[in-house]
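As noted in the main text, all predictions were made from sequence alone. Below is one such record, for MFS transporter.
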Amino acid sequence: MAWTGHLPASREYRRILVGLGAAGVATFAQLYSPQGLLPTLARGLGVSPADAALSVSLATLGVAVAVLPWSWVADRVGRLRAMQVAIVASTVLGVLVALAPTIEVLLALRLVEGMALGGLPALAVTYLHDEVHDEHTAAAAAAYISGTTVGGAAGRLIAGPLAGLVGWRPALLTVAGVCAVASVVFLRLMPRPRGYRPSTAATARTVADGIRTSLRDPALLALYAQGALLMGGFVAVYNYLAFRLEGPEFGLPATVGSLIFAAYAAGTVSSRLTGRWVPRLGRRRVLTLGTLTMVAGALLTLSGRLALVVVGLLVLTAGFFAAHATASAWVGARTSTGRAQATALYNVLYYSGSALVGWLLGYAWSGRGWGSVVTGVVTLAAAALVVALTVLPGDRSRRVVSRSSR
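Prediction:
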């Protein structure tokens, strides 16, 4: 009998969700932990906010550069084996980053660390489509995305307050220790793959063919645009809001300002709920609502009242992760051949947007302040919304699209 995938009632399904959740923690805690201490890092090294943000942007650029090579490696050795190698390598590099003697070495190591980390987001959703029954991949992908939000929040919330107390090096070493534990959980829990057999026939040409197939699909291009535009604006908000909160307008101490990353809890909830909303409302409708929610949250952060800024951050985070969970799962559902390359391309654009916009809007912050950052974020979200509504298939056709893409 042909393999149809694990069902929610099975022990293996539960192990996959917990294992990938741990991988999400290990990956995103390392990837974004410097974001929680950017003001401390900028002051300690005497660099500008935009230059300090390079510690985040170069790591996300490394992810963007590496996801396609990782998809080729996965075709040859298997999705799970490739993810295992990636998580071990990135854990070692996380320790080396904390011990870097200079800013130049730190940035170089962050780039390489991002390249190692690229193996997880590049392959996790593809792995789910291989191993989980088609009817449950959206819910499983949403569970994985929620794990990434926990990891992203944990890395920032550990690093930020600790940096204010003991310095940035011990803070990053602590995050590396947490990631090591999460990596062990992943390595121990993941069941033997059954839905994909690696092939030595996978060559650079097969990868190129998968890329070409994906780039010929307007709907996939529109989904890639969602990742780039929305993620760019989202990361910029988290990169520079702490500078505003610790500045003269609010005057919060670093240990308090870094607690804004607790707002990631809203993303954990919304990404899990997305798995329920999509079957009821349709992918495009959920994507649209997530984007509009993100815009509303960004506008609320313009307030001079701290309570409204925090509410705006919660709303923005919930909207972003609902949109991201929908778009990333839609990419995997739409493709059957070259799926690894299709999902890898989503990650290329997603992390490229993070790296480029997350860095460039630092100059908007240094130049005209927070209003300029919000203007950029809203403009990017509006562009993503226009692309989604004009290119992506409507909700009435979602069942037809799902069947035709299998």
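Residues 397-406 have pLDDT under 50 and may be disordered. The longest helix spans residues 137-166. These features were considered when defining construct boundaries for the mutagenesis experiments described in Section 2.9.
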